[in-house]
TrEMBL record:
Domain of life: Bacteria
Protein name: TAXI family TRAP transporter solute-binding subunit
Keywords: Signal
Signal keyword on record: yes
NCBIfam families: TRAP_TAXI
InterPro entries named in the record: TRAP_TAXI
Signal peptide stretch: 1-28
Length: 326
């Protein structure tokens, strides 16, 4: 090939590469963050797994941040400090509608993407405390869950409904675990996925008892708090522990309308298209479907999530259509 031919070939190649670059923009990953929960919780592991799976299948790179839980996440989401948030069903409902903890200011830009899995409340005490019923917690030093987390809020609501008044000791999950082992408090609680690592570790060092609600207590609590439902922690979930009746709610992912429709769509699509893979490493997600997610949503969906659910044929109630998608 002559020098002129090489020059012409080089010129053609350069022009072709430039044209291709101009015609096809690079699909650079969008970096976004998600506020989750204490690292000692099962939720932190689960959300780390789902973030890894979504990041591998969508043009986004999700970084996981340890937080105190749902309440803190909702506040930080509203401030724009995080892009996505682990939220519980009670928190999402109240935040959007300006009720309960959010009575002084609704977060009307909150939008739901999906529900990850149901979560169960754990109320545990040291076996050597002698406490076997919820009523016996009156006046006792008890940690209601991580400061700012959904478990703390649910504990207070349920105990108020049942007229139970412990001496609340507010601290992080790690500090609460240490306080139980040291005997400084009688017990602690958390809204999470069984088995909760921190509970397992404490149980090995200082045996625990998971308190069980009576049928009457379940009825009283769910009548006052309709976003909660009866749940069971199976026998043997924690070594030598009997079955315990408790309460549960769904935990999911929320954003605000500031998250682009395309990003919201890609996150939702990647999640549901890989739900079986997630279930292999994060058991609580097994059995979850887009239909279950929509059926249990009371807060408007993100426009991108709405597009995905409609695309796969899920019937979306009008109440879940956000204003920007109408």
């Amino acid at each position: 090939m002559t020098r002129n031919s090489l020059t012409r070939a080089a010129t053609w190649l350069s022009s072709s590469v430039l044209a291709a670059a101009l015609a096809t923009p690079a699909l650079a990953d969008e970096a976004i963050s998600i506020g989750v929960a204490p690292a000692a919780s099962g939720w932190y592991f689960g959300y780390s797994e789902l973030s890894r799976i979504i990041s591998a299948d969508a043009p986004v790179e999700i970084s996981v941040r340890e937080t105190g839980g749902s309440r803190e996440n909702t506040i930080r989401l509203n401030r724009g400090e995080i892009d996505l948030a682990l939220v519980d069903a009670p928190g999402a409902y109240e935040a959007y509608n300006g009720e309960g903890r959010y009575a002084n200011g609704a977060i009307d830009q909150m939008r739901m993407l999906l529900w990850v899995a149901p979560s169960t409340m754990h109320w545990a005490v040291r076996q050597d405390s002698g406490i076997e019923t919820f009523e016996a917690l009156d006046g006792e030093r008890f940690n209601p869950s991580s400061i700012g987390g959904g478990g703390e809020y649910i504990t207070e609501l349920v105990f108020d409904a049942l007229d139970i008044t412990p001496d609340y000791q507010r601290m992080s999950m790690g500090d609460a675990a240490d306080a139980v082992v040291d005997g400084r408090i009688v017990g602690f609680s958390y809204n999470g996925i069984a088995p909760i690592p921190a509970f397992t570790e404490v149980h090995s060092a200082r045996p625990l008892r998971i308190l069980s609600l009576s049928d009457a207590q379940v009825e009283t609590a769910t009548e006052a708090l309709p976003f909660l439902s009866r749940a069971v922690i199976p026998a043997g979930t924690y070594r030598d522990m009997e079955e315990a009746t408790t309460l549960g709610s769904y935990i999911g992912i929320a954003a605000t309308e500031a998250l682009s429709e395309e990003t919201g769509y890609e996150i939702t699509r990647a999640y549901w298209e890989n739900i079986e893979r997630l279930g292999q490493t994060f058991g609580p997600a097994e059995g979850m479907t887009p239909e279950i997610a929509v059926e249990n949503t009371t807060t408007p969906l993100h426009a991108g999530a709405l597009r995905y659910y409609r695309e796969v044929g899920v019937d979306v109630p009008d109440a879940l259509v956000p204003p920007e998608a109408e």
